[in-house]
Structures are given as C-alpha cells and as structure tokens.
Automatic annotation (TrEMBL):
PROSITE patterns xref list: GNAT
Any GO MF annotation of the entry: protein N-terminal-methionine acetyltransferase activity
Domain N-acetyltransferase stretches: 48-115
Keywords assigned: Acyltransferase, Transferase
EC number(s) reported in the record: 2.3.1.258
Name of the featured protein: N-alpha-acetyltransferase 50
Keyword Metal-binding: no
Top EC class for this record: transferase
Species for this entry: Oryzias latipes (Japanese rice fish)
Length: 129
C-alpha cells in the first residue's frame, strides 16, 4: 500500500468545525469553543501554540515549585517534536501503545527541566550562567 499525502491549510471560519471534529477524534482531551475562537483570531495554529506554551512555561517558572514539565507526543508527529524541542523539551522515554485509536500508537515522553542543577554529587555548588 502506498503512503497517502495529507495537506492541512489555514484554519478559516469555513473549516473550523472540521478542525474541531478532528481534534475530538484524535486527541484524548477536549477543547472548549473559546479555544477555536482564539484559533481563528490568531490565524495560525502555530502562533497560538507558541503563545499557549509560553503562557504555561511562564506560570510554572513564576510559581517556582515545578522542577519539570512532561508531555506526550505521537512518535510520528515530527513537527510537534521539533516545536517542543525549540522550547527546550527533550525526549526521555517512549511509551508503547499509549494511544488507543490512532496509529502509530506509541508516544514519546518529552521533558523540560525548569531548574538548573545547583549541586554536584560531591556537594559542591555548580555555577549556573
């Protein structure tokens, strides 16, 4: 069987319901109507994703009690993996059969460390820059 090619265009008021349906079928989380309204206002999903991730990272860093942030990405979603790696996330594990209704079913676990190590095993302080 030959591979298929799928191209996704810009999100518009004419296809926002299709995006909502795709998200309902593919993702294990639900997004409210405000999310989709914001997608239309921003015009590009990547810009919204960047804005949302920056918001979460800022909250976690300001809170000061979080050491790490973890997320799961389908192993074939190279654009998402690249996106998160630009923000300092690293692949630390792969979970087999993480997804139930999509192929491939495996997911990478990505981690972003929010704290620099402040002490080496010998007990000496490590200078961070």
């Amino acid at each position: 069987m030959k591979g298929s090619r799928i191209e996704l265009g810009d999100v518009t008021p004419h296809n926002i319901k299709q995006l909502k349906r795709l998200n309902q079928v593919i993702f294990p989380v639900s997004y409210n109507d405000k999310f989709y309204k914001d997608v239309l206002e921003v015009g590009e999903l990547a810009k919204l994703g960047t804005k949302m991730l920056n918001h979460v990272l800022n909250i976690c860093e300001k809170d000061g009690t979080f050491d790490n942030i973890y997320l799961h990405v389908q192993i074939s979603n190279e654009s998402a993996i690249d996106f998160y790696q630009k923000f300092g996330f690293e692949i630390i594990e792969t979970k087999k059969n993480y997804y139930k209704r999509i192929e491939p079913a495996d997911a990478h676990v990505l981690q972003k460390s929010l704290r620099s190590p402040c002490a080496q095993p010998s007990g000496e302080l490590q200078k961070t820059e």
